[in-house]
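Our consortium's second objective concerns turning raw sequence data into structural hypotheses that experimental partners can test. To show how far this objective has progressed, the report includes one record in full. It was chosen at random from the queue rather than selected for favorable results. The single chain below, 133 residues long, was entered without modification.
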Amino acid sequence: MDDAKNHIGEISIFADKCIVFKIKPITVLERGSVYEAARYYWKANQCRAERADYVLAVVDGVIKGVFEPSQWYVTTYENVEKYGGSKYWNEKYRERIGFIGKEADFSVLNRYLGKCISAALRAAQNPVLYSYK
């Protein structure tokens, strides 16, 4: 089912600096939550990611999670073991990035959660998108 057809609004302009992680539904099932699916093993620039106010976890074009990152880290086995997620470790994930955070405040959740990202953003091949330069 295409969740993007059953959204509660569309986002094409962001009010905040957001990094968007496009997540496969199977990853959410395997890891047990949207947060766990969103928080590590991304091929992204850590310095650029650290400028984000929020992480938007997008599944099938719809924002399913909004998180406020408190820390970013490079995914080495040692870091992943320290911060959680070593169950899913694979050497190919070395030198990617991950974050630790919490669910965003209600006002921010209300602004993004359940909304569809624009068709242009959904069509982008890269699973990591930024709302800022």
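The partners drew two points from this record. Residues 3-130 form one domain. The two ends are 33 Å apart (CA to CA). Both points have been shared with the crystallography group to help prioritize constructs.
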